[in-house]
TrEMBL record:
Record's compositionally biased regions (Gly residues): 343-353
Ranges where the record places region Disordered: 329-359
InterPro entries: Phage_Baseplate_Hub
Pfam families: Phage_GPD
Name used for this protein in its record: Phage late control D family protein
Source organism of this protein record: Roseospira marina
Superkingdom as given in the UniProt entry: Bacteria
Signal peptide, first to last residue: none
Length: 382
């Protein structure tokens, strides 16, 4: 029986007009990058323009991308607003960069606001309302008290990022929603668990794993807050005394200082292990924030609960489709063991051929690790 060819499939629309065929004719590369937080998701396109006949897209055009494999439904990867266009050569080519369409200019405009005797959820709801977004805030975070908060010459995008850092959360905008969830928890704003994804070593072209004993170097984190009643500064300590890192900012309340110290200690612990994977066959269903398990590697890697921090899905001119994953430990030691805090003072981009469910290739038992795109295609029968 002849092997079934493996062909990437994809679709690109520009202001709702399907331009897949026009792009496919000269496609050099297409990359979708999914990042955590308000590090805006990004789409980059490189298209050959040997005759100079292609029309340069105007800034502001909304591109929508879907990726997958022939024989399987395409997976929508979001909407992107073109914000940079370049023409380079030789050989002549057009380079397009587009960022997540939901991250509008208004979110980056500086403003002055003050919030008193409120909650984190209420502040984020106010931000969402200003920009026509639906708030999707995890209940465990929404109720956190905010006695006082100043937004002085600060954009709403920066404010959301700052608040997320203080409580070890991720703030992002997806599909018209302001989403705010615990960082690395692998859950949606509604509390539902994101589906876990498993990657076997045989799926990978390469990998890199690292361990840093950052937790061993830092035993605790101190955050200073201003006690206005006593007219003096006090401190909250997360972790243990010893080698203590002190946060630079002075917080307006004890609760905010304690939350910031815990978040910083958790972030230090999270950085102990990191993992990078390059998948021989792209898996467009993988998204940032998703729980990840790996098999077939060393015990130090297989035994860790990972969470995807960043994922890049790339199509190339040779017909390859890969996914590059950056992951960190999902539940670092500070979270597992607990930490004390106390006062311290549609259309296919390929051509022809029968289709195949890529899942069958992942489960076929064939070792794809370390193979080039050409070698993978030959072994798959493309």
């Amino acid at each position: 029986m002849e092997p079934v060819p493996v062909i990437p499939a994809w679709r690109v629309t520009a202001d709702a007009v399907d331009v897949t065929a026009a792009v496919a004719a000269g496609l050099l590369s297409l990359t979708v990058t999914d990042k955590p937080g308000l590090d805006s998701d990004e789409l980059t396109l490189a298209i050959a323009d040997p005759t100079g006949s292609l029309t340069l897209p105007r800034r502001g055009v909304i591109l929508r991308v879907a990726l997958g494999w022939q024989g399987s439904p395409l997976i929508d990867k979001g909407r992107y607003r073109v914000d940079e266009v370049r023409h380079a050569g030789p050989p002549d080519r057009i380079e397009i960069k587009a960022r997540a369409a939901d991250l509008t200019g208004g979110l980056r405009a500086h403003r002055d606001e003050s919030y008193d005797e409120t909650t984190l959820g209420a502040v984020l709801q106010a931000v969402a309302s200003r920009h026509g977004l639906a708030p999707a805030i995890a209940a465990s975070l929404a109720s956190l008290p905010i006695p006082h908060l100043d937004q002085a010459t600060e954009s709403d995008a920066h404010l959301v990022t700052r608040l997320a850092q203080q409580v070890d959360a991720i703030g992002t905008i997806k599909d018209g929603r302001l989403v705010f969830t615990p960082r690395g928890a692998g859950v949606t704003a509604e509390g539902a668990t994101l589906p876990a994804v498993t990657v076997a070593r045989t799926e990978t072209a390469s990998h890199a794993f690292g361990i840093q004993d950052r937790e061993g170097e830092t035993t605790g984190v101190r955050a200073v807050w201003r006690d206005h009643d006593a007219a003096e500064d006090r401190a909250e300590l997360a972790g243990a005394s010893g080698t203590v890192t002190t946060l630079r900012r002075v917080y307006p309340s004890q609760a905010e200082a304690a939350a910031a110290a815990r978040a910083a200690l958790t972030d230090i612990a999270r950085g102990q292990r990191d993992l990078r994977l390059s998948l021989a066959f792209g898996r467009p269903e993988i998204i940032a924030g998703q729980p990840l398990a790996v098999t077939g590697f060393r015990p130090e890697m297989d035994g860790v609960q990972w969470v995807v921090e960043t994922v890049r899905h790339t199509l190339d001119a040779a017909g390859g489709f890969r996914s590059d994953i950056e992951a960190v430990e999902q539940q670092p030691p500070a979270q597992r063991n607990g930490s004390d805090s106390g006062s311290d003072g549609g259309s296919g981009g390929g051509s022809g051929g029968a289709a195949v469910d890529i899942t069958s290739l992942r489960e076929s038992g064939v070792d794809w690790s370390g193979l080039s795109a050409a070698e993978r295609a030959e072994r798959a029968g493309a």
